[in-house]
Backbone:
């Protein structure tokens, strides 16, 4: 029961340490994710601006390949990738308002073509959290009040997760060791001295055992001396110093 | 003696926590985002570029696309071999374009997954 209680305390302390490290990890992850969200929003605005320019010139002649090349010429896909570094956007979608209104495609938007946070199209749950971020920006043509379409950018959060682990893994490990060390020091600091037993005093149980053995040996020696004629029965291979004198 | 035991244990633990395997190895990657649009027939079309970031030439580079419906069932899967200037061999640093159109109804596509596969 004593060891079981100790084991429970150790497990609880380890859980406390792990939860502290996990909180730090979540904090770092959220910080990095916010940066990624802002990048995605900024990129969606840039693409929407380019889409407005493109569709003003090519209203009736739309080709995804042409638009992609247009973006490549205007911004440069290589620059886009380098700007995001860790988690570049996976999917860049351009949907027209007419297609969304007809129900041909679901863009994850509300009636005003703004992002609908509750739409299942904007979520992908994996590893117990929503690991997809979607930035949606409507774009306009000319002086029209209604948007011509939307730009939708999907970014995965998984690369951020691995990046935070990759960069801070050693730090978390060191923290784990240091916190364990601190917990052990705390245990030593608060450890109570055992109350002294009246019969044994300051002697430990192990010392008592050896003293008992010594006591038994001494008792045997005394007993041997008490028995008469013991000296005469000395075996031949035992040297007696008194005899030499 | 105990000190060396602890040191040895810590060294073993640290060797496992190096997190090197979390770092992505150079290979083929999508160059920028893949563009998705709804085509004239109301079908989803994809356009993108792939770059060989490794220091070797790669063969049989494939773009794999999986579309799932709202129940999580696969409704369409497409595999496209990438063809570079030397055929199926993609040279070091080479950029290859790809594009394809889905056959499934756009409104049924709920989840999309694009991956790259290759042989060194």
Residues:
């Amino acid at each position: 029961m004593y060891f079981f209680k100790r084991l429970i305390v150790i497990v609880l302390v380890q859980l406390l340490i792990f939860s502290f490290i996990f909180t730090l990890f979540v904090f770092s992850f959220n910080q990095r994710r916010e940066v990624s969200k802002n990048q995605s929003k900024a990129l969606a605005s840039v693409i929407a601006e380019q889409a407005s320019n493109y569709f003003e010139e090519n209203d009736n002649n739309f080709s995804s390949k042409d638009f992609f090349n247009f973006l490549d010429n205007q911004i440069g896909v290589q620059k886009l990738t380098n700007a995001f570094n860790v988690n570049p956007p996976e999917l860049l979608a351009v949907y027209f308002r007419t297609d969304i209104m007809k129900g041909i495609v679901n863009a994850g938007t509300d009636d005003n073509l703004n992002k609908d946070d509750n739409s299942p199209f904007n979520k992908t749950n994996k590893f117990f959290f929503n690991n997809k971020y979607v930035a949606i920006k409507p774009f306009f043509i000319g002086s029209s009040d209604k948007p011509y379409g939307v730009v939708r950018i999907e970014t995965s959060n998984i690369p951020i997760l691995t990046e935070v682990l990759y960069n801070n893994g050693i730090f978390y490990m060191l923290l784990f060791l240091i916190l364990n060390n601190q917990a052990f020091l705390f245990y030593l600091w608060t450890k109570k001295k055992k109350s002294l037993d009246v019969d044994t005093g300051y002697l430990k149980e192990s010392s008592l055992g050896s003293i008992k053995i010594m006591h038994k040996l001494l008792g045997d020696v005394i007993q041997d001396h008490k028995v008469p004629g013991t000296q005469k029965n000395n075996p031949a291979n035992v040297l007696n110093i008194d005899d030499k004198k | 003696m105990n000190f060396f035991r602890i040191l040895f244990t810590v060294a073993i633990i640290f060797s496992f926590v190096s997190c090197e395997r979390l770092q992505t190895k150079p290979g083929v990657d999508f160059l920028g985002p893949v563009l998705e649009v709804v085509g004239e027939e109301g079908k989803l079309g994809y356009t993108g570029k792939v770059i060989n970031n490794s220091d070797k030439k790669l063969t049989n580079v494939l773009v794999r696309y999986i579309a799932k419906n709202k129940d999580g069932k696969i409704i369409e899967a497409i595999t496209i071999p990438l063809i570079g200037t030397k055929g199926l061999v993609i040279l070091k640093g080479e950029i290859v374009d790809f594009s394809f159109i889905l056959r499934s109804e756009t409104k049924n596509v709920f989840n999309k997954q694009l991956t790259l596969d290759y042989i060194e």
